[in-house]
Amino acid sequence: MTTLAFDASADPILERRRRIQSVASASLKRRKAYSKIAISICWAFLGIAIVPLIAVVAYVVVKGLPAWNTDFFTKVTEPEGIPGGGVWNAIVGTAEIGFFATLVTVPVGLLCGLFLAESDGRIAAAIRFAADVMTGVPSITIGIFGYIAIVKTTGHFSALAGAFAIGIIMLPVIMRAGETAIRGVPTHLSEAALALGARRATIARRVVVPAALPGIITGVLLAIARGLGETAPLLLTIFGNEYLQWNPTKPMAALPLVIYNNSSQPYADLLQVAWGAALLLMLVVLMLSIGSRVLAAVLQREKR
Amino acid sequence: MAISQTSLPGGAKRGGRFALPNGAYRALLAGVVAIFVGLVAWFLISLVVQARPAFSTLGFSWIVQKTWNPTHGQFGLLPFILGTIETTAIALVLAVPIGLGTALALAYLVPHRLRAGLSTAVELLAAVPSVVYGLWGLIVLAPLCREHLEPFLTSVFGWTGLFNGPNQGVGLLLAGIILFVMVLPTMVAISRDVLAVVPNEQVEGAMALGATRWQVLRKVVVPGARTGLLGGFTLATGRALGETVAVALVIGNTPFIAHSIKSPAATLPSLIVNNFGEATGTELSALFGAGLVLLVIGVAVNARILVRSTARGGAASVAVA
């Protein structure tokens, strides 16, 4: 009786399995090495992205803080060579432009948002399209529009022309944010109100808008943050002013303009003011963005 | 609905001292929307009307002519159109891979504890005004660029011929870099959001099949988020094309076609903002025309994403922008 001499090396099936395993483990090693390289590139890109962004913020803080003193917030801008001087006129200008732009765009934007949220037709789609186009329009062209529409018609530069241009930038943002927030309100809320015999206007004012308030506030604050930082439209509409000016029908100063005009000047004191103004503007904008998040979170929690 | 009209005695009155009848309410909304539509129409029409003298004096070809020389009545826009496209291209070449890598890292690689914080920080940076980036670019980055980056790039890539000429700091390269830094937060914020919502089942399925981490990201996550990623890239392109002050501060502003990545140049927005103060007559009209060209380019870039977001009727990525 011959023994079944099992020669593993000769077995075709086992041989094939061994070959597959060796190929597979080589491929696994290659895939793992490849993966490691690619993942480290992602990490490296994260590093590359973070460095300049941190550098911008750090530079603005470090260079801007020394400019902050009482004069900076209370005096008006001085020409080069004259020490001291601040940006009080620019703070007034930015605040006033922001105020007028917000005053008009919030009600108009919210009513448009209500309309968009309540309608699903061709007209609504066309208006939605128009709002999205306007959101993407380069801000300088909106500055041109402000110039043509207000400055040319009235014959002079004015803060109201600036507020007009900034408002046109803010309006579509508020519209779409408002629509999104209002659409997020559960339909059973408004249906319940409808069943109780409430009119549409009552439902909007008493049910839908209060329920959508966190989203609306977030959208409005983000729109204001965006509007305050815009520079190009202001260059074509408010012109700038070295003196304090409260009258919105006159040329005014604004923080972005001070930064823009001073940054290309070869004078250290003007540059100092530019950094200080940049810090102030950046903080205001960041506060609005952070504030919008905090407020939305708080309102969200209260609703529960 | 007829039911909604019936008013219960006493009840309905309480709800609204200011409550309008439904018809009046709809009319109010329609009226306000009409204001918006009117504004948009006024915007487009006034731009076209004010730019028309340039077209009627110079013909349509002035858009692609090479010379900008107002004293000789030459208003060619080609250098500025090219400058706009070149700076945007430099910004995108940097921002697309780096933005995507950063977004992948933020969505999947960074430890869970840090993800929310880092993502919020990036979103906040997207709100920093562009003039601040411009100031930083001109004062901090321009000297660095002149002393270190440009000599280095010239020594490495000089053979391509793209880096001829003196190292000046300001120019196309710096403008592109500033745009890259500026659009990065927007791009990362949007990309991270769309990458993070790829269904977990798909990710886990790929892992169960033995895919490596990178294979999961490359073959499942990125393709799954493709539409959203393209939307983010488009938005970033639009911002880079239309950016005015940050570019005007760092590009050097010369009305010539650049022969090197290091040369000073100008873009359509920087042309408008630099010449607006002194321009009159045909030149002013030509500047309005430049705005019109910019508007057309911007809308054309955004067209694809616009059509989709509108058709869906849902939320566009407006909040981040």
Can you walk through the features of this model?
The complex is a heterodimer of chains A (304) and B (321). Chain A is mainly α. Helix content of chain A is 77%, strand content 0%. Chain A has helices at 12-64, 70-74, 88-118, 122-136, 139-154, 159-183, 187-195, 200-229, 232-237, 255-263, 268-303. The radius of gyration of chain A is 30 Å and the shape is flat. Chain A starts with 11 loop residues before the first helix and ends with a helix. The relative contact order of chain A is 0.13. Chain B has 321 residues and is mainly α. Chain B is built from twelve helices and two strands, in the order ααββαααααααααα. Chain B has helices at residues 11-15, 22-58, 78-109, 112-125, 130-157, 172-196, 200-208, 213-224, 226-242, 245-250, 268-275, 281-312; strands at residues 68-69, 74-75. Chain B has a two-stranded antiparallel sheet. In chain B, helix 3 (78-109) runs parallel beside helix 6 and helix 6 packs antiparallel against helix 9. Chain B is flat, with a radius of gyration of 25 Å. Chains A and B meet through helix 1, helix 3, helix 4, helix 5 and helix 6 of A and helix 1, helix 2, helix 3, helix 4 and helix 5 of B.
